[in-house]
Structures are given as C-alpha cells and as structure tokens.
Amino acid sequence: MSTSDVRSIDSLVAFHSGLVKLANNWEKVIQELRMTIHRAEQYFSQTQPAYWRHQIQLAERELTEAKDSLSQKQASTRPSDRPAATEAKKRVRLAERRLRLCQDKQRQAKAIAIEISQHCDKLLGPLADVGEQCEVSLPQAAVQLLTLIGQLKAYAEISEQSPDAPISSDKPTSSDKPTSSDKPTSSDKSN
What we know:
Largest sheet: none
C-alpha cells in the first residue's frame, strides 16, 4: 500500500472542485470545437459547391443571351444591312471567360472539400479521445478523490479522538504539561 503526505484536506477538497470545473469547461470547449469543425466542413463541402453551381447556371444563361444577341445582329440577309457586332462579340467572349472561371472554381471547390473533410476527420479523432477523458475519466477521478477525502476526514476525526494516535497539530497534550517533578525547586532557583 502506498503512503502519502497529506497536509491539508481542505486543499484536496479545493482540488476536487477544480477537477470537476475542469471537466465541465473542457466539455464545453470540445462541443464548441466540434461545432466549428462541422460548420467548416459543411461550408466547404456544401455551401461552396452550391454557390459555384449557381454561378455556373448564371454564367451559362448569360452566355446564351450573349450568343442570341450576337446571332440576331448577324441574322440580316445582306451584309451591308448588318449593324456592327463588336460589342456583342465582346460580350460573348466575356461570358465564355466567366463560365470557364466558374467551372474552374467549382472543380477547385470539390478538391478543397475533399481535403477539408480529411482534415476535419483527422481533428475529430483526437478530439473524441479528449472528450472521453473529460466525460468519463475526469469525473471518475473526481469520484475517487471524493471517496479518499471522506476516508481522510474519517481518519482525521479518529486521530483527534484517539490518544495513542500520532498528533500532528501544535496543541499541547497532557504529556507536554509540566509535572511537579518538572517544577523548579528552591535549589534550582539559586543556581
């Protein structure tokens, strides 16, 4: 059996209280981290791809409108009757460039979503271990400490009541009181 050098039961009680608070605080922080990781994963795996899908739809619509406008300008039967289509051609080129950009961004968003998902999974593993520590191990340790504190208190009460037990306080005991043989005699006074 191991021995310990406990000097203050009150400090153990304070330690127990701190242990319980630590477990509760860690649990809250871990929940916040889990929510943040979930939001980040959701943003990169759902929000961003949906945004770029929508942008591609808009770019395709814009390209279709630009091509329709260009074809209308070029639809005259005689080339001399055709209006200048430089603006319409420029608009088609810009719409095509925007569509390519949106498609590139969508591909990038998919690749980033996969990478972010892997990183989030890597974070959630150790976070689950820490969560288990604060949800299971720390409360168990607090319960064991509380049991030991109760045993120490009972031992301290027994020690105070028992005259044979070693006394660690500075209170004088009956053996510390001066006896009649310890009183100075008249011969001691003269010396």
